[in-house]
Amino acid sequence: KALKIGMMPADGIGREVLPVAQRVLSLTPGAPKFEFIPLPAGFELFTKTGVALPEETIRCLKEECDGAMFGSVSSPSHKVEGYSSPIVQLRKNLDLYANIRPVVGVRGTRDEDKWVDTVIVRENTECLYIKSETIEDTPNGKVAKAIRQISERASTRIGKKAFDVALARQEMRSRLGTAAAVGQAKVTVCHKANVLSTTDGLFRESVRAVKENDSISKGGAGRYHEVEMDEQIVDSMVYRLFREPEVFDVVVAPNLYGDILSDAAAALVGSLGLVSSVNAGDSFIMGEPVHGSAPNIAGQGIANPIASIRSGALMLEYMGYTEPALKIYRAVDHVLREGNVLTPDLGGKATTDDVEKAVLLALGA
Amino acid sequence: KALKIGMMPADGIGREVLPVAQRVLSLTPGAPKFEFIPLPAGFELFTKTGVALPEETIRCLKEECDGAMFGSVSSPSHKVEGYSSPIVQLRKNLDLYANIRPVVGVRGTRDEDKWVDTVIVRENTECLYIKSETIEDTPNGKVAKAIRQISERASTRIGKKAFDVALARQEMRSRLGTAAAVGQAKVTVCHKANVLSTTDGLFRESVRAVKENDSISKGGAGRYHEVEMDEQIVDSMVYRLFREPEVFDVVVAPNLYGDILSDAAAALVGSLGLVSSVNAGDSFIMGEPVHGSAPNIAGQGIANPIASIRSGALMLEYMGYTEPALKIYRAVDHVLREGNVLTPDLGGKATTDDVEKAVLLALGA
Ligand SMILES: CC(C)[C@H](C(=O)O)[C@@H](O)C(=O)O
Ligand SMILES: CC(C)[C@H](C(=O)O)[C@@H](O)C(=O)O
């Protein structure tokens, strides 16, 4: 039985790079059989139909699909009544509570002197993304308010996910015989509890409790005590990520900080066009390149498809298909290391097509 | 009549670097006469007395001082009942609504290939910093909420400040005969209106209106139309700041984004120990190094005093004493360019004292 994957290219370069990921997935040796289902979503769809994420798209994802991929969505340049970002809606609707964003340099390239091999584990359902906003007219002009929600439940489950990712990475390293960038599996909790003592205080305490309760109450049966834990205030986190990226293994953060951190980390590996993610729930995985719709280059056939290709592989990995995922990672790394077929974001002259061909060749597909 | 400056070293290295700034200010040729008034504040003070910012400190600042300097404050590692950051309280109490943070590389050092010369103009009174937080117990565990406030009034006045800073920089450049890093004075509005369409939408519209209303309604009498304006979504802003810092002149941002952005920009110039700021209201200026209390190096005499020295100069500049401020900037630049007297954060072996002496020497003091 084929895996059914809902495909939402959405806007801009999403439409150019998601089809590449689809073809690479189909042609990867050892990958499961796929059935790809194209599904409408996006800001352009909204401007045409008044709906950014159709009910039918959600229904199909929930009832028929085993997984999904999302491309990228355009941002309106003015407030548009009734519009709400489809990617944010999707995360909430499918309860994809963890946004997992690995950022890794490529051995053998100039990035090696500042080695980056980190995963941002971003809470994906709350914080300011609950989009509870109001505005009122006052004698002093308009005053707008947004609610930022941090719950023990969401913070705990994202904390667990971060420790799980840290352990899985450790295991993978020992399987591949590679050394950890940091000495040992580590989770860094990112917050701003020095100002937001209640909300970010709860986030910090909840993640700490994941480790503490695991090792104490379960009498050593849990494995989180193997993972080191430390913390960084978000502003200092961004600073240190740039100054000494090699000290970070897994970073867990509330939604908005995670959003910012993953773009910051992307700057370290040369291009947003390289950075993949999955939006993960307990029973559904959606791959998504971290980059946006890039209106300035859309339609020119020069968008970097690597973020999407890697996101496809990451989706596979999180669905349990580790072997074909590893094949794709290695093929991509090979192309990057060779350095002959690079899109303009990486300083090259290759097209989206060229990169697809190079990856397929490296895959032996 | 001497200028009265309230000095709040507060915690950690703040106590080591603020006295250096004080001595440099006193000894700068052409500077006004100063009277420095030591004032208590800080987290350590809180742990001893239960008060982080005494009423008397506020009273003295408001009634007696012409300006102030703040060092750095420690962050509690656990939630502490009744504690509220004194720096956040000071900004609110004195209505220091603009946090102005210039980040500039040093010509003639290795930073020159990625040239940074930008000013972060951070709104300093609202956003999540209003600290309106609640927490409740629910059947699913604790749920905490914080209110993020964005008002037309605060966004408009910070917008104006950003355009003023852009024009002042342009003027300074033409006076010094230096070229603009970007072609022309420019204000970049940083927001996340694609998700926070109401709050960040209001911020964006208010800043846009500052330019639009200035050039239209005042029939060209205003000068903001000379300044270019564009925008960046905050995640993409952090990314682009690292990839192409040279395209940013003045960046205006709501409070929390500004906090994160200034640390990001600091990473580009080699060290947080170099980055200065002023908290500016309509009639009061408070200098503040951007770095924290650095508990890991506090007490060792190796903290970099440059951020504080520059913050003293910036305070002078914003109080209208441009000439002595420029002398201090040039002395600091000279020391950095020579590169023989650098503290460990910059890869050197110098002490706080050594840097003070080198700056005083360069000042001809
Ligand atoms: C497009 C936008 C709503 C989205 C976000 O803020 O989550 C994007 O920046 C991301 O990181 O996936
Ligand atoms: C210490 C902290 C409250 C403060 C802030 O968040 O504003 C600091 O990070 C800063 O940038 O001045």
TrEMBL record, chains A, B:
Q: TM segments?
A: none
InterPro entries from the UniProt entry? IsoCit/isopropylmalate_DH_CS, IsoPropMal-DH-like_dom
A GO molecular-function descriptor: homoisocitrate dehydrogenase activity
- From the UniProt record, give one GO term of the biological process aspect: tricarboxylic acid cycle
**A Pfam family per the record:** Iso_dh
Instruction: Show where the Isopropylmalate dehydrogenase-like domain sits.
Output: 4-359
Q: Which UniProt keywords apply?
A: Magnesium
A single Gene Ontology CC annotation of this entry is:
mitochondrion
- Which segments does the entry list as coiled coil? none
Q: Which family does it belong to?
A: Belongs to the isocitrate and isopropylmalate dehydrogenases family.
Q: Which PANTHER family match?
A: DECARBOXYLATING DEHYDROGENASES-ISOCITRATE, ISOPROPYLMALATE, TARTRATE, HOMOISOCITRATE DEHYDROGENASE, MITOCHONDRIAL
Identify this protein by name.
Putative LYS12-homo-isocitrate dehydrogenase
Source organism of this protein record: Pseudomicrostroma glucosiphilum
Highest classification ranks of the organism? Eukaryota, Fungi, Dikarya, Basidiomycota, Ustilaginomycotina
